[in-house]
Amino acid sequence: MSLPDSSVPRQRLHQRSITYDCYRRDDGLFDVDAHLVDAKDHDFELLTGLRPAREAVHDMYARVTIDAAFVIHAIEVRTVAMPYPDVCDRIEAAYAKLIGANLVQGFRKRLHDDMGGVHGCSHVTELLGSLPTAAIQMMAGLRREDEGESKPFQLDRCHALETTTETVRRYYPKWYRASAVRNAQEEQA
To answer: What's the whole-model pTM score?
Structure first.
């Protein structure tokens, strides 16, 4: 069920679309192709000229190649539409600084340390900020979640999968921490 219709009449002014398409490559690596588009529903006067309604103000792509351990092996950035032509796209190659980073071990901090502010493009950096969750979703289903001796990655990363919850007791009994639940209940008593 989506959001209910607005109770107040309104007019859309702007649309941002972000997509992540994820691929397994024949060489054993994985690609996450990310795409961001910003467009106005009305003609938009930029200092660099008029952007007609629904023509992209920002149209940006990133392809990040990772291995099964989420380590970045390659990154490509392309800026197709930008508010400052032949300027915004000059930073694309700088994103190669992220090669070697791990998407699930401090990536967002490294992204903002290396590419935040004037060191990168705010829109590309924002687009890359959700890569970890897209990559995790890509890997989900490639093997059973409960296989192996390591705690499944998703446990203790959101409220539904905290290891003291009924959800974990039911679906991941090996990792359920009943003693932590009992201790918390005893402390509250």
So the answer is: 0.82
